[in-house]
Amino acid sequence: MLVGCLADAGASTEAIVAALNSMEVGAQFSFEKVKRRDVGAMKFRVAITETTKHRHLPGILKMIARTEMPERAKSNAAAVFEWLAEAESGVHGVPIEKVHFHEVGAADSIADIVGACLGLELLGVEKVYCSPVNVGSGTVNTEHGVLPVPAPATAALLKDVPIYSRGPATELTTPTGAAVLSTLAESFGAMPAMRVAKIGYGAGDKDFREHANVLRVMVGQTSKATESTTVSVIEANLDDSSPQVVAYAMERLMEAGALDATVTAIQMKKGRPGVLLRVISAPSKQEELAALLFAETSTLGLRIHTAERRVQEREWVTVETGHGKIRVKVSGDGSYAPEYEDCRAIAQASGMPLRQVIAAANHSYLNLASH
Length: 371
Hints:
The chain is an alpha+beta fold. The protein folds into 3 domains: 2-222, no CATH class; 227-311, Transcriptional regulatory protein pf0864 domain like (Alpha-Beta Plaits), CATH 3.30.70; 314-369, no CATH class. The chain is 36% helix and 31% strand. It has a 4-stranded antiparallel beta sheet, covered by helices on one side. Strands 15-16-17 form a 3-stranded antiparallel beta sheet. A two-stranded antiparallel sheet has the order 1-2.
């Protein structure tokens, strides 16, 4: 599915087949356009002609080294197999050099890993980002017997990766796929800000009734909004807290690491006026900030949900004014704004009106940007 979606997005099928043929793994390779639940996708097929099924890591690394493809693709493929060997070693309790790769060492799995790494290189992909991984459920038949899904090697490879289970009771992520994703992905979660140029769909063998059995890849250029992360939004409705308590709570929340905190006037039940206190938090700070809200306000309950946060690329520029140095925040599209705290400090120290200090900072920045 990985190789199929990359080929569907534009990676040369001829180049992939030529590289895999140079490995002499004992297989024939082909691509075919198919449909899964009426979704058009590319199916990568591997017809096995070899008899050797078990291989060790050193032998596989030698095969990769002699493959006719770019060095970075070779390096990535070798890294995937080394990570896979480490996971198998931990599961079976044997040294890495004695790990038998079994199914993953078969020609089709070698072709999947090498083909995926080459496909990324052919598309000019610099960074890989991945959604949370659907591992499936139920059991799977292996050479080690019937195992629960995710299989032990898959589970080890996806440690610290967000996973979930949805759809038919079958294996939806194999050790091969898990090894590629966990080795090459920069991060897992929300899609990064990007301008999509190409989209590809890779087909699995089965055609499920619940959903289209396809893997999608989206290839593009990063946009100005360089930060695209998942955040926690914590909310509380308050109708019995004084303005002083609410203001103090907001100060404490910001000091504790909240990304933002706002208060909005609302009309609550029984006609009571109240406020909505909303906090934006990094997921790692969620519980700490929730506890702080309980401690500093009268609320007895909170609402917490996730959202995607995007922040435009920006940088700091320091400008000289007749009153002192002031930092100016400049965004990727050229917008700018003097730092309030710097302007406030100068206004208090000099006795000048704040608006005049801000105007001086704007003037200094425009002069600097024009040269």
